[in-house]
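Annotators were shown the component list below and the corresponding predicted structure, then asked to write short factual statements about the assembly.
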Amino acid sequence: MANPGNYDSNAYWKATLGLITKVLAIWFICSFGLGILFAEPLNNISLGGYPLGFWFAHQGSMYIFVGLIFWYARKMGQIDRKFDVHED
Amino acid sequence: MDLQTTIYLVVGVTFALYIGIAIWARAGSTSEYYAAGGGVPPVLNGMATAADWMSAASFISMAGLIAYMGYGGGLFLMGWTGGYVLLACLLAPYLRKFGKFTVPQFIGDRFYSKSAATVAVICLLVASITYIIGQMTGVGVAFSRFLGVDKETGIYVGMAIVFTYAVFGGMKGITYTQVAQYIVLIFAYVIPAIFISLALTGNPIPQLGLGSDMSGTDKSLLDTLNQVVNDLGFGKYTTSLPENSMLNMFVYTMSLMIGTAGLPHVIMRFFTVPNVAAARASAGWALVFIAILYTTAPAVAAMARMNLHATITPAVMKSDVDVFSADANIQYEARPDWMKRWEVTGLLKFEDKNGDGRIQYYNEKSKDEAFLAKAEAAGWKGNELTVNNDIIVLANPEIALLPNWVIALVAAGGLAAALSTAAGLLMAISAAISHDLVKGIFAPNISDKGELMAGRIAMACSIVVAGYLGLNPPGFAAGTVALAFGIAASSLFPAIMMGIFSKKMNKEGAMAGMIAGLGVTLFYVFAHKGIFFIKGTEYLDLIGGKNSFFGITPEAIGAIGALVNFGVAFLVDKMTKEPPEHIQHMVEAVRIPRGSKAVDGSHAH
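Structure shown to annotators:
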């Protein structure tokens, strides 16, 4: 289980956790925050024909989740290469 | 061609396709059997995951539930998709790097304990078996309705089909069949939705149609719907909360998210991709394909609810007619044909309580006193129409008067959804038995060939058991999906997460956590639904009544169980000695993508 290359595993893990924290923060805010906790006040704003809070619960969160995963995958790829731990 | 012949034809063609694919993709090695050889491209794996994940419940029942719940139904939408964010960044890449076939194997190796693996196997089996009963019942119902056979025959036919492509093809066969099943089910779902959206709003894209104005008016569909349901005494569509509790919705959504991320048959799909980067991307692709259906569902829900009310109480759509006037509702004799057809199935029931020959469909349990007084004054003696939620999707093409081939396609789609999930679950169950129990614990020296045989025997037995349970559902089939999620959320998810993110978590902590989380969840669910779901053994008094824990329903308790799991695990971890050096090194290695060989390679210990 030796390290396969020359990399700073602590810094790599810190960068990874930093990215995961950001992803989870957005995940939480758009679903639990905007879709549930603050849905009621947001419903006073209209997006197209949608009340905004309802939109987050029934549509918006899901679009954001999809974007979020691809963003995470791309960023993670960059981190992997930066620390030279990517696969061949 | 008449409807029944068209259905036979379309369903027959799709089945021939699935079985053909299974024969083409036969598994020759354990790696192909458990993980499809580890070479499935992310996009295809995403499709297979989507089919695996979207069960008969997603396809048939979800839109109906949302139609009935309104805004609160969003908990299913957010809960069942948000879990993929957790999967993508917390579990999938690391489990892929770990490079083994099953969840209990990860837990057993990471926590250096056969007992931990055994606890995980038990959790997996309970979660998967409770889930599969519902799927087999769904298969039976779908077959009986569409093929005109009785429910028993339906289940036997379903068993035979799953048997063919799962036993011979293993994970490889299942993966490629699921890709085909995804394509069938997504067309079946989206096509009727497009037609209905077009008819109601003039916009062919249902996701946009839901926010558009009603055709020929300048009032939005959602505003109209709010007013329609309000006129009939129901809560406002865009704001109604389940159980009137925001906290419950919050916790329920969380339970579904972490349950999704912890369900073994979903996690297993991420062992089939070539490397860590592919595991990350694959979760994204899975969610893309799931979101196509899940973002369509709320439109289907709202539009179907609107169509239903407009059909039964035409007055709600007119501003100059009072809904309480004598001719506001349709006459029973004048009901449309699709209602007659669905009455036969018992999913739609009419009872003329006030004997006026008209259908009064409203919320008799409304809390609005003024509304109830008006209803009484109008001579209404209670709600007269009972509509099963499942009708919403299945009858949609009939309500919209779509051609026969669309109805046949919906039949094939419903079957594809139920069969693909059943196959995925059976795979997880048989892998747990042959790989984790037989090879992992009882016969570690079993040959590759012997293990493959054990896997096939386990699969065949699982199908028989699943079929038996589908035929004789133990009286709790309907409520058990919640339990499956509760178990996955409260036991497996936290254990895997701590295994990756806490280098110092030891076996004592992990096992105590799993047992505590599972215990709390079972205790609360059984309090509501009876010990092992046996009627009459509920002990609600003991816990202070229904939903006594801050108003949280038993379906939503998994998130609380997960919290207990984390808490107990860290407490016990602090009091016991830290894991051995080599385990800590293993955790470090799992965190680094480089060196994730094909599953084949890393399997040779």
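Statements collected:
1. Helices of chain A lie at 9-37, 39-42, 52-82.
2. The mean pLDDT of chain A is 89.
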